[in-house]
Design goal:
Its cofactor is Zn(2+). The chain is α/β, with parallel strands linked by helices. The protein folds into 2 domains: 2-149 and 284-343, Quinone Oxidoreductase, Chain A, domain 1 (Alpha-Beta Complex), CATH 3.90.180.10; 158-280, 3-Layer(aba) Sandwich (Rossmann fold). The protein is 25% helix and 27% strand. The protein has helices spanning 39-45, 93-96, 106-109, 139-142, 145-155, 173-183, 196-205, 216-223, 268-273, 288-296, 302-305, 315-321; strands at residues 2-8, 11-16, 27-36, 55-56, 60-68, 80-83, 122-126, 130-132, 166-169, 189-192, 210-213, 230-235, 248-256, 277-280, 306-311, 324-325, 330-331, 339-343. The strands form 4 sheets. Strands 3, 5, 6, 7, 8, 15 and 18 form a 7-stranded mixed beta sheet that branches. It has a 6-stranded parallel beta sheet with strand order 11-10-9-12-13-14, sandwiched between helices. A 3-stranded antiparallel beta sheet has the order 2-1-4, with no helix packed on it. Helix 5 crosses helix 6 and helix 5 (145-155) crosses helix 10 (288-296).
Length: 345
């Protein structure tokens, strides 16, 4: 089967790999139809995020059941499904203390990072990680379920109120999904991006009562002209860090979700004295079913967020659309795409 394989930084290629086989009675073989390109994929390809050499990339996927193990009773051949790629054992210390997204087996089971992923034709997983798709949900739309579940996991760490003054930094897929996830909780706010082209796209698809700005300062002035303070800042870029703490109101939240190396400093006394919360969030934790429901009920307009689709064979063009030029080994911010999906034929 045709697979997009990672060897090392900037060294990825399509290879023929053997089709995986069911080896356990609770496993399911899925024919992959669509996989979203994630920021993690860009980080891996560019050498900014560690992955195991020779693994198949990709993890935001949907497809069709083609074979089921003997003990699988909830699925049958022909079912359309979306895949929860966040494996957890349920038995280790992390899992038993409610931190399944940090399962101690993650170093060998993380889909598309430490174990083979879904930029390919077939994928085997356990039945507990598959959710049936409604007929009206396309495979491409379903690929947004996993990233949305990660947004919901982040939001669950906040004692959120609908009147929180909120700014999201970054108008990429993560920023846009955060805006819709927050809007579903009654929150309105502003989305900031330095790219005018991306802001134009974001402005056309942003939730009701959300606006866009080309600078953090402009958003602050719009939301809180008197004191330039807000209750929640979500940094999807990984470039801002704690530099915005002074613009948080007492008891405010800084949510960090951008995977980028860097060093930030802050005054612990300020954090304590003003009851500030700095939160990091990664992966999905008990939120995949909710994300699945929101996509199915069109609470998230998935089709609007997908700006480009490519065949798996055109992966270089797909990555280039997101600013990741594999041939030249350069990664720059994308200005004309939100979500890009690769489709298997």
């Amino acid at each position: 089967m045709l697979s997009l394989v990672y060897k090392s930084a900037w060294d990825v290629a399509l290879e023929e790999r053997p089709q995986p086989q069911i080896t356990q009675e609770n496993q399911v073989l899925v024919r992959i139809h669509a996989t979203g390109v994630c920021g993690t994929d860009l980080g891996i390809v560019s050498g900014k995020y560690h992955a195991k050499s020779s693994i198949i990339l990709g993890h935001e996927s949907a497809g069709e059941v083609v074979q089921v193990g003997d003990r699988v009773t909830t699925l049958q051949v022909g079912d359309r499904v979306v895949i929860d790629p966040t494996y957890y054992c349920g038995q280790c210390n992390m899992c038993r203390t409610g931190r399944q997204n940090h399962c101690l087996h993650k170093s060998t089971t993380e889909t598309g990072v430490s174990s083979d992923g879904t930029f390919t034709d077939y994928y085997v997983t356990e039945d507990r990680f598959l959710y049936k798709l409604a007929d009206h949900v396309s495979y491409a739309e379903a690929t947004l379920t996993e990233p949305l579940s990660c947004m919901l996991t982040g939001i669950n760490q906040i004692q959120l109120l609908p009147n929180f003054r909120t700014i999201i930094l970054g108008a990429g897929p993560i920023g846009m999904l955060y805006s819709y996830a927050l809007a579903s909780k009654g929150v309105s706010g502003s989305i900031v991006d330095i790219s005018q082209d991306r802001l134009h796209i974001a402005g056309a698809i942003a939730p009701e009562r959300w606006d866009t700005h080309n600078s953090f300062e402009s958003a602050l002035t719009h939301i809180s002209p008197s004191d330039h303070q807000v209750d929640l800042i979500v940094d999807t870029t990984g470039a801002v860090g704690t530099t915005v703490l002074s613009n948080l109101a007492h008891g405010g939240y800084l949510m960090l979700v951008g995977l980028r190396d860097g060093v930030s400093s802050f005054n612990p006394k300020e954090v304590v004295d003003r009851s500030l919360k700095i939160i990091g969030s990664i992966d999905s934790l008990g939120t995949f079913a909710t994300a699945h429901y929101m996509i199915e009920r069109n609470l998230i307009p998935a089709s609007k967020l997908i700006t480009h689709t490519f065949a798996l064979q055109d992966y270089e063009e797909a990555f280039q659309t997101l600013g990741c030029n594999i041939s030249s080994g350069t990664l720059t911010p994308s200005s004309n795409a939100i979500k890009v999906v690769l489709q298997s034929t």
